[in-house]
Amino acid sequence: MLDKQGFYHLLDSHNINYESIEHPAVYTMEEIFSYQIPHTEHIVKNLFLRDDKKRNYYLVTIAGTKSVDLRSLSETIPSRKLSFASEKDLVELLRLEKGHVNPMGVFNNIQQNVTVVFDKDLVGQQIGIHPMENTATVFLEFEDVKALITAHGSNIVMCDVD
């Protein structure tokens, strides 16, 4: 299971440059902004979604200032009707708690039944993600995150998220 320590070890073992900033636990973008964390414009939002039959799960990563129209997203990726997955599903499938969601959570998805969905706007950008818990934010290049997830064997969908 990938935890905070394993997250940093993974980045170091792949010689990935990053900056880590420790902060109090945060659960929303509003809380992140209230702590005056540097580089907040790069912090992403992560949503754990499922289709209406609970057959397909998606870990969606978008810019922190964006919102998602689930109906439009379901047509874009494509999927059946989307809704938020339960906290039980989050723990069972990604071994993460609410507020700790980040794209690297798929490293804990033993069944490899979660598809990672990235907004194309992230390409070429530095992004800020939690290192498996919400008490820090790690800033690194999007391409490094995508490469690690691809090497892990998880499915990735790149799309325009409105």
Which band does the percent of strand residues land in? 25-35%
Strand order of the largest sheet: 4-2-3-5-8
Helix content: 25-40%
- CA radius of gyration is 15 Å
Distance between the termini: 33 Å
The description of the largest β-sheet is: 5 strands, mixed
- Compute the number of strand runs: 8
Which parts are unreliable, with pLDDT below 50 for 5 consecutive residues or more? none
**Structural class, from secondary structure content?**
alpha/beta
The arrangement of helices and strands along the chain is HEHEEHEHEEEHE
Count, helices: 5
Structure at a glance:
The protein has 162 residues and is an alpha/beta fold. It contains five helices and eight strands; from the N terminus they run H-E-H-E-E-H-E-H-E-E-E-H-E. 26% of the residues lie in helices and 26% in strands.
Protein model, in words:
- With 162 residues, the chain is an alpha/beta fold.
- The chain has five helices and eight strands.
- It starts with a helix and ends with a strand.
- The chain has helices at 4-13, 29-34, 70-76, 87-94, 142-152, and strands at residues 19-22, 44-51, 57-63, 82-84, 114-119, 126-129, 136-141, 156-159.
- The chain is globular.
- The longest helix is centred in the C-terminal third of the chain and has 11 residues, at 142-152.
- It is 26% helix and 26% strand.
- A five-stranded mixed β-sheet has the order 4-2-3-5-8.
- Strand 6 (126-129) and strand 7 (136-141) form a beta hairpin.
